[in-house]
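Worked example

This section walks through a single chain of length 106. The input is the sequence exactly as stored; nothing has been trimmed or padded.
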Amino acid sequence: MLVQVQAAVDEAATEEMMAEGQQLYVDFCAGCHRENGRGDVGPTLVNAGSLADVHGTYQRIMNGGEEMPGFGSVLSPEEAHAVGTYVMNSWGNDYGVMTQETAEAD
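Given that input, the structure is written out below as tokens.
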């Protein structure tokens, strides 16, 4: 029973994180990556194998890179985890939840 309760709590937390991440994505990312993740100014996020690198994805969100600006001055680490989780699990991607532990792992 405890395992089922924990699984339900984890699922609810993930759904909440995905919803927050989707809104943050629309607010900060869709201008370059489009709402459908297919990219325009920014590269496509559809079936993007590079998103499997959780640490790299977090670093890119916070610090930017190449032509992408960093969002560390406007997003908290928790917000970056939410948007990271959203992009890592949308448009054919299935890379799990971004947490502080996974974002800091090398």
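What to look for: The two ends are 35 Å apart (CA to CA).
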